[in-house]
Amino acid sequence: MTDTRPPYAGTRYPRLAETPAFTEHIAAGWGNGPVPATTVPGAAAAAAAHRDRLSERLPGQAVVVASGTAPVRNDDNDYPFRADSDFTWLTGGQIEGAVLVMTPRPGGHDARLHMPPPFRPGDTGFFADAAHGELWVGASPGLPEWSDALGLPVQDLADLTVPSGALTTGSAGAALVTEHGLEPSPLLDRHLSRLRMIKDPWEIQQLRDAVDATVTGFAAVAAEIPRAIGDGLGERWLQGTFDRHARTQGNGTGYTTIVGSGPHAPTLHWVRCDGPVLPDEVLLLDMGVEARSLYTADVTRTLPASGTFSPRQRDVHDLVEKAHRAGLAQIRPGTEYLDFHFAAMEVIATGLHDWGLLPVSVDEALSPGGQQHRRYLACGIGHHLGLDVHDCGKAEYEDYMGAPLAPGVVMTVEPGLYFHANDLTVPPELRGIGVRLEDDVLVTAAGSEVLSAGLPIDADGIEAWTKAQQR
């Protein structure tokens, strides 16, 4: 019988990197020149100013900040890479595995960037590294291209030297801790959070762009509500609609999109989005586009899926709107950060008391030892906004909670009421209603500006807007 098997049948299949004929052949014959590094216009100049601000805070102190790497999703699949926010704020770049080094000198700091060079033809990683090899992921800018784009000297990561006593940040710097003996510095984290509280004009424009894209994303979602109901596509369809919009108009979403219909609306972080869209219930949408610069919006509206609120749904929405307006009225220079919180909470507690839902007086509920009204609003009702949806999270309490607001602060105001379907302390007609209103607000020299004002906040306006998107 003739043996028809190929000549290598039954032998150990060779590793390509160990096959000289292959490695010689794949290393040659490639065209194309350098790939330019792309950054958001103005990002490098803004980052240089940010480094100057940090340098003023930490004279004589070396600083090392890493961009991080993509986390593993499962097995050999990674999540998409998203650069560490502090790294992006200080460099204007989004480079996986990169490290910024700021070395003190008289009058300031010298900055340099270290990054892993791309695997080009002739490198084993070109064909052997599925996560970073150009044969797998496409051509990438190299060190000279990133240096030109960011206005920084850029060197090979293999040449990284860490100054003695350097401060580094938290999770993104884990490899630095392991390889170079550094310790994450709460002091550096705190300084960066405090600096990032005040946005410069370039950052404010990035947030404007993110909010504007989010407003049009809400319109895209509202237009799909009839299909989500009629075709049985449910919450997933609406979540996917916004996520596609965010990826098209920006980098993606700034956080996992929340779409909660009916009994899911009171669940604060309903990101599963695996239920139906119920035609006679409210639909809570908490969504934000992350711009390509990584600055994100964070906006919430609660829509009547049918286009019209029921009387009880409107009652809840009206109370939340009243609290929302009370909070917005406190956003201006000189007021303390928590003033908006207390103003909104007083409205909520008073309304709940009037409905007979509080077992104590309004004053007792609002006292530090009371807080019974928080059963229906257990979360906070606002936060800083920027590169992170909950921006400046490493600041200490006294850095912002009792500090006066200043021009350049961007924050959210987001009161709500959440009556869970299984909450026996509320009458049946309220169970399963969740309402939140969230706007992104810029503190200005004269007061404040609601960046997300393109979306209405009153019940009549929301009904009319919802119906208009579906015509």
UniProtKB/TrEMBL annotation:
It holds the Pfam family AMP_N. One of its GO terms (cellular component) is cytosol. One of its GO terms (biological process) is proteolysis. Residues 45-183 form the Aminopeptidase P N-terminal domain. Its EC number is 3.4.11.9. Its cofactor is Mn(2+). It catalyses: Release of any N-terminal amino acid, including proline, that is linked to proline, even from a dipeptide or tripeptide. GO terms for molecular function: manganese ion binding; metalloaminopeptidase activity. Keywords: Aminopeptidase, Hydrolase, Manganese, Metal-binding, Protease. InterPro entries: Aminopep_P_N, Creatin/AminoP/Spt16_N, Creatinase/aminopeptidase-like, Pept_M24, X-Pro_dipept-like. It comes from the Bacteria. Belongs to the peptidase M24B family. This is Xaa-Pro aminopeptidase. It comes from Glycomyces sambucus.
